[in-house]
Amino acid sequence: MRLLIVEDEKRLAVSLAKGLTAEGYAVDVVHDGIDGLHRASEGSYDLVILDIMLPGMNGYRVCAALRAAGHDVPILMLTAKDGEYDEAEGLDTGADDYLTKPFSYVVLVARVKALLRRRGPSGGASPVHEVGELKVDTAARRVFLAEDEITLTTKEFSVLEQLVLRAGEVVSKADILEHVWDFAYDGDPNIVEVYISALRRKLGSPLIKTVRGAGYRLEGRS
Q1: Which tens digit of pLDDT belongs to each residue from 147-171?
Q2: CB 176: neighbour CB atoms within 10 A?
């Protein structure tokens, strides 16, 4: 499952991203409304966590613009405001749920899971991704190559998930670090190469191509 967080309080955004990544979600973060609208419009997200008070474009306008364009992604709105009027305005623009700051992280996770369950398997992108002989079930976290199930570690699966969600595209080392590790990671960035090598050993070298100076691309084999 891919989540987008649109939140200008960077410390809060990083904290939420780290927690939700630990829950097994792939998480992207942006810090203003215009970027949020662009990413939500262009990306295949399963849920958007959207702050109301944002620079560039507030959350109400982002939500309304997404709904006007026909995007039905679940939206959980966050705000430091309180009061029935604000909640009504958020829901009137098309938000699916509303959470007032300060909130419990446990409550936020419960709301996220509830919205994703409500959306159901028919909503959004299928959790099963097929690239040639490779099949990755991101919900069950299982990987098959032809008829054989491949056992991966948690980190190996997370790296592969980033590649399979953008199959055919170049995924940079920085993108993988950002989504699989955390925003505060200051270790050796070559750790990504270690996991790419491990995936190649398990899945076969032709599946993951190195694009010199740019990153990696997942390609199917026939």
Answers
A1: 899 998 888 888 898 899 888 889 9
A2: 22
